[in-house]
Write a structure and sequence with these properties.
CATH class of the largest domain: Alpha Beta
Distance between the termini: 49 Å
Number of helices: 7
Largest sheet: 10 strands, antiparallel
Helix content: 10-25%
CATH topology of the largest domain: Thiol Ester Dehydrase, Chain A
Number of strands: 10
Oligomer: single chain
């Protein structure tokens, strides 16, 4: 069945309970490159529980799972992850359980042949106390579903980067096998592992998961500005603009004014911006 915008905007998914433990926390940190130097005392607490485990804040994107859009009528083979935004209401612990509630908060029909934008909102609360943990807003681009008859709603404008050279930068090289490790965090799409599948889609090799690149950007901000204190992050947003090939060096360029950090991520060897219009809000 074709995409039905009215039905989609009415959909709700509630009461989905998810648990996590320290092994998942450490696997995620390793998968986005933490602990590459096992003697680095700043990164070791993210991958070793000895002195108390720290949780990389972007782990929230892995926990924010939703099946709300399953069988919604779109052509899933033509769906792209366009943007991500996380707002943290309290720091994540090394283990716990949460409940998720999902809805489509906005839909924009760009017209026949131009696709549609879908904004999926996922709210997480603690399973025992119902205290808010984080909210994820995930923009999905349904490239084959333009002209579905949906609203042409106004869309939030992306953050504008300052018009000056970056104040700070962080270069982090990805590993050739990084996508194979990151897929163990839950996204086993063969596009990230199967060379033949990648070639059929016109790619030179399997690409890195967008949310792995997202985690590398979060790590870069923690490393460069926050002295590895994950409790300082309040929100993080950015738009995915190009795929990353495992082995790329990811340079995160940052502009800081008070508690706001604007950023973009560039694949250095290919001089290609892979995350654009990034903004991170820090604790006062």
């Amino acid at each position: 069945m074709p995409l039905n915008p009215a039905e989609l905007l009415e959909r709700r998914e509630t009461g989905i309970e998810i648990g996590w433990d320290d092994q998942q926390v450490m696997l995620y940190a390793l998968a986005v490159g933490m602990g590459r130097d096992p003697l680095d005392p700043r990164e070791l607490p993210f991958v070793y529980e000895g002195a108390g485990l720290k949780v990389l804040p972007s782990f929230a994107s892995v926990l924010a799972r939703s099946r709300l859009l399953d069988d919604c009528g779109w052509d899933y083979s033509q769906v792209l992850h366009g943007a991500e935004r996380i707002e943290w209401h309290r720091p994540l612990t090394e283990s716990g359980s949460l409940r998720l509630a999902s809805r489509v908060s906005r839909l924009r029909d760009l017209g026949e042949g131009r696709g549609a934008h879908i904004l999926l909102e996922i709210r997480a609360t603690a399973a025992r106390s119902d205290a808010p943990l984080f909210t994820v807003e995930r923009t999905l681009i349904a490239r084959a579903d333009g002209g579905c008859g949906g609203p042409q709603a106004r869309w939030p404008a992306p953050p504008r980067l300052p018009n000056r050279p970056a104040d700070l930068s962080s270069a982090l090289r990805t590993r050739r096998d990084q996508a194979l490790l990151y897929r163990l965090c839950g996204d086993r799409n063969p596009l990230h592992a199967d060379p033949a599948r990648a070639r059929r889609l016109g790619l030179p090799a399997p690409i890195l998961h967008g949310l792995c690149t997202w985690g590398v950007a979060c790590r870069a901000i923690l490393r460069t500005i926050c002295e590895y204190d994950p409790t300082l992050l309040r929100s993080l947003e950015g738009r995915f603009s190009a795929p990353v090939l495992p082995g790329d060096t990811l340079v995160t360029e940052m502009w800081q004014q008070a508690n706001t950090v604007w950023f973009r991520v560039r694949a250095e060897e290919r001089d290609l911006v892979v995350i654009n219009h990034g903004r991170c809000e820090l604790a006062a």
